[in-house]
Every structure is written in C-alpha cells, then in structure tokens.
Amino acid sequence: MLRTMDFPNETRWHIATRALSRMIIAAGREARERKEIPDAFYALGDEIGRIAGDHRMPRGNAGEIIQALGVISVMLFGPAFETPYIEGYSEEAVIRLTRCPLYSEEYREHADPETIRAACCAYLVTAIEALNPDFSLSVPFSRCAGEDFCEIIIERKPR
After folding, report:
1. Within 13 Å, how many C-alpha atoms sit on residue 106's CB side?
2. Is 123 or 84 the better-scoring residue by pLDDT?
3. Is 94 in a helix, a strand, or coil?
4. CA-CA distance, 98 to 6, in Å (whole number)?
5. Which of 12, 35, 60, 102 is buried deepest, with most CB atoms within 10 A?
6. Of the CATH numbers 1.20.120, 3.80.10, 3.40.720, 3.30.1380, which one belongs to the domain with range 8-156?
7. Distance between CA atoms of 37 and 32, rounded to whole angstroms?
C-alpha cells in the first residue's frame, strides 16, 4: 500500500508548491484577461492573514510585513522563494530578486511573461492587504517586464 510517508519531504514539498504555482499562474491568466484580481487570490490572501495571525507574526510596520510575507511565501511556494535581499524599515520595505521561481523555465511553458507578472502582482497585492491593509505595494521593476531583477516596495498608504 502506497502512503504519503513513502515520498521524501523534499518530493512532497516540490509537488505541493508546483501545484500551487500552476494554480496561481492560471488565476494570473484570468487577472490579465479581465484586468481585475480573481477571487482565488483573495481566498489565498485570507489564508495568508490566517497563517500570520495563527503564528503571531508581527506585521505592524513595513519591515515586519516584508518578513512575514517572505516566510509565508517560502511555506507556500518552497525554498526557491527564499529572498536573499530584504530591506525593511517602519514605513517602507524593499525586496529585490534576481531569480524568480514563477518566472522559471518550468512555468514559462505554461504562460507568457505578462501572465506571470499579473499572477505575481495579484498574489502580492492580496497578500499585503491581508497582512496589513494600511500598507500597499508597487513593483517598479520586474524580470517579467525584461529587467534584470524584480523590486517590490511595501509602504504605508497615505492617510
């Protein structure tokens, strides 16, 4: 009888993150075509908020939000989402990525760069909203748009 425990942890993680990534990209296609964020991203955002709350992750300022986002993204999408460059302060935080697991050869066969960008941005918008609705994000640079790196900026919304 085959059991889950017959698969190594790394294999199970790879299967789960690949499945979620494919779903995110499929929802990104819908986001790109409709020019609005599909409900699936809001449901994932709700779960991200629940994970942060259940584990008492601080998220009162931009630096804390970026740390929580980093930890949860690795939990959901696997170790390839580990971010080597994070700079976080109270009012603003920045992530710079030179590699992106969603913009990899494996996923580019399922979607074009604009679809992957739509998926990534929808994920980030709903995740930040769920972690702390007083903050917003911008993505001034992205590999999907042809730049050498992605830059994600989280900052407090104007009052």
Report:
1. 10
2. 123
3. strand
4. 35
5. 102
6. 3.30.1380
7. 8
